[in-house]
Amino acid sequence: MKMIQKIFDSQRKHFEEKGKFRMLHPLFEATETFFFFPGILIKNSPFVRDNLDMKRFMSFVILALIPPSVFGIYNTGWQSCKATGMSLDFSTVFFQGALIVLPLVMVSYAVGFFWEILFASLRKHPISEGFLVTGLLFPLTLPPSVPLWQAAVGISFGVVIGKEVFGGTGRNIFNPALTGRAFLFFAYPTKMSGDSVWVAAGSFAKEAVDAVSSATPLAFSNLAVAGDNIESVLEKVGFTVTKLFLGGYPGSIGGTSALCCLVGAIILVLAGVASYRIIAGGILGVYITGLVLNLFAGPQANPWMALPPFYHLIMGGFAFGIAYMATDPVSAPGMDHVKWIYGFAIGTLTVLIRVFNPAYPEGVMMAILFMNLFSPLLDHIEIKFKLKNRILNV
Amino acid sequence: MGDLSNIFLNSVFVGNILLAYFLGMCSFVAVSKNIDTAIGLGFAVIFVLTITTPVNWLIYHFLLAPGALSWAGFPDMDLSYLKLVMFIVVIATMVQVIEMMIDRFSAALYSSLGVFLPLIAVNCAILGTSLFMVERNHTFLESTVFGFGSGVGWMLAIVLMAAIRMKLRYADVPKGLEGYGITMIVTGLMAMAFMLFSGITL
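Predict the joint structure of the above. Result:
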């Protein structure tokens, strides 16, 4: 440890105000605080009233992201091996998954860091550890077959327009990872949705992936016509409740397993990073909306209406979204009571979009972005309300 | 009844006059610095829209549309080329009335709205709603609901924007983007978030 400290001390002068590498000071600082506890207090939100600093704070998010990432690599590999007829033993599957997922993660980190360092150097703000999270969250929300250059375009949009134009981490309005993903979704819809993007099979075996082997549970559910029962439609193609909960089905890289997201959510809540209010509100929102829709279900109605609400919780990206995206402390409201409303609305909108909007099979991404839009207003309302009820100092 | 509520929801969320059609941008960008002012202007726009849209409907259907003057004995008359002029006149008159009312009842709001209150007269959201009403063949009742809904949608957008701009006061925006620049970027991102509803057919 002493030796590393010495290296930093001897090199520090080059990066300070008059040094020859002063442009790169943020990079130096980021590397140094990676090893040592910084002696300064931060001036930008997100503030944490705790002895965690932001780097440690973000480390917890990374830690919580490990289960879905590892499972994502395995599942992507498994789906890909199955589609191309390769052997399904553990090491092949894992290797194949890593071959698909790791390049996406590396591109996301490399391109994102390029923008982050560029802005930090030119605008003289510190490099934010928040990017470590954004850069990993973003590829986990993508379909595994997305081309690398599109991932680069998406993360560029997310970092620059979603975050840096507002002045960096803590000042943004929307979750940068989701902004980038939504941009890709609207810019390149053929690569971001549909039945053939959810399994990466490589160019050598495109024909091996027929529509049925690569459709997501949500896509299968959309095939059900009035009078059908979505549960039995899913059962018929092998998506049992256990399988949906564990996550062994085609989908976005990190978002399939409700179990891994649950583990991550518990880590985040215990570490004090994520708000349990948002998560609980979201689950309640899904559940209550699902139950209310069940009341209107009938043989002629949309078969989605009759789906038991817990299917909404374990299918698709809802678990991932509510655990990692909705709880982003920057773009979520800061006041306690409105967090319930915020989470609840995300759950409700997710279910409503899945049931009523034929344009999107999945609703959680847009629901979170839409509620990010409302979070400053929700905060404002709660503050107004509190000020009104305050007993004035006499 | 179901039709009317569909028209209302459609005009507030799916076809939001501001975030889906980008009408009424000028006052949206200029008056969204403060939530209370934004709410005031929002109500003024709702009021003007709810009155002008049905009034314009009456004028169009009894005076201007092809064959509308048959009650006066001119079944071949087609005055619809006058609709832009007539709609603007109706809107300007209504805005004048509102201006006098706000001046009388809320001087603070009157001074904070400033020049943008008379400028509602040329707010494209107002004229746009009247023109959409003609294009979509709404009935009288539907056009009233459509006008009201468009106003609510516009108000929702400007109040959200005002709250976001309050938060943006703590942001560190690059010099060239301060003010209108960042506001336009946020508007674009808001429009992207509102695409949540696109594809829903009501």
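Residues 54-212 of chain A form one domain.
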